[in-house]
Amino acid sequence: MLRSNANGVPPQFTKAALLFAGSLGAQLISAVLWSQQSDAPMVWFTGGVLLAALLVQEGRNWPACVAGWVAGLLASSVAFPRSLSNLAVVTLPLVGLILAAAWALRRVCPGRRIDDFGRLAAFFAIGGFALPFFSALIIVGLERYLIPVEASPLHSWMHLALASALGYILLVPALISVVDPKSIIRNERAPGWLVTLAAIGALALLWLAWRYFGHAPLVRPLLLLLPLTMVIFAALRTQIPGTSVAILLFGVVAMQISLEGRGPFLGADMATTTLSVQLWTLGMSLAGLFLAALVEQRRMTQRALLDSSGQIRELAGRLIVAQEQERARIARDLHDDINQRLALASIQLSAIRRKVDKDSQEDISHLQHELIALSDDVRHLSHDLHPSMLSHTGLTAALAELCHAQRQRNGPRVDLRVSPHVGQLSQDVALCLYRVTQEALSNAIRHAHAQRISVAVDMNVTHVELDVMDDGSGFELSGDEHGEMAKGLGLLSMDERVRSLDGELHLMSTLGKGTQLCIRIPLRHPEASVPG
What we know:
alpha+beta, 67% helix
């Protein structure tokens, strides 16, 4: 029993109705593009509708697709200069060939996409050559048997084969690309009105050039290559669907001008002219679609890299948050447990010192002083792991305490200048500035052996900047300012912190002349901005 969709219509009926409308519309469009003077089709889209549907649908949906397509093809017989009986005779072998081509493409190219060179080449071989070749051979043979005429069989066969090839090549990859939810074209904005106007103007310019200068032998080769720039533009902006539409428009313009007896495609007769237009359009289609496939692959690779970069940044942000939480837990343990136990041990030593002789009292006093020094070190370590002053008194006081502590421990001069508005920064931005400053001071003192360090925090309406300069030994950057960062976890950690806030980090250093570290973080939140 068939299941129904939300409107109570069976899905098989919906697919059949869509294929009926698609087949009827494609047949009517093909009739409009029919060359009445040579009685030859320029392009035949109807077969491409069925082939595209079979490639994107599961095998169980194929009967409904075929039924709807055949119904649309037979209903369109009024638009073509042939009888319904003749059309019905050639429909059965044509359906068989399209089914065979769809089965072969599904076997050769697993999946429902035609967006790389291998799959596109296989599609050109099966759907762009073998299927049109045998379709035209069977259709022309059956029609010659049913209605004997005196027209050249070779011309009729070539016209039909090229028209079918153009229909499959221009329509099938474009439809599959539009239907595919992972296609790049479905995830990009539609071209704006300026691009549309530019495309219309370029098409009009091409029409004028072909119509009035196409007969000149000197410029004819150049005029034939003129649409190539437009095809490249279409491939870059709209990938496979836009490229197919652009090439079809070029072919229509070429055919229309040729029917007027003008342009670069004129031959000895109208049949030869039609073949010339078809061959040129086919060659342009092959080149354009390969280029569009290359652009599609590149865009997909870029999107995959952006997605991976976003996931890595999200993971890095989570790791930084987890690191801060773990630092806070360790800091609390050091302060509330170990430091308290050290203080208790110092008190107990004081009580013991009063009970022993004077010689032992000196040893106990020395041990007590060591415990007090150890307690101070633990307190400093706890503060470095989790600067409670940052959340209690703000960034300015926390940076001042950090610079003062560094001066006391290692002796270099640290000059601090902070903008008066930094108190309005969000907690994550303030923590990032503090951690980067902390790491930069540590690197300047431990590794660069700096004697003077300056720290400056400036803030305006749009961003906040941190600048840390030292007069230490410096180092040589390899290639660019980020090339050296992979060599140190400290620099890498700073870079990840800044990037997590959409900021930028710049490192400038010269061997023997010190180092300058600059970060710039945009202010995205209302509370992190300077009042106007």
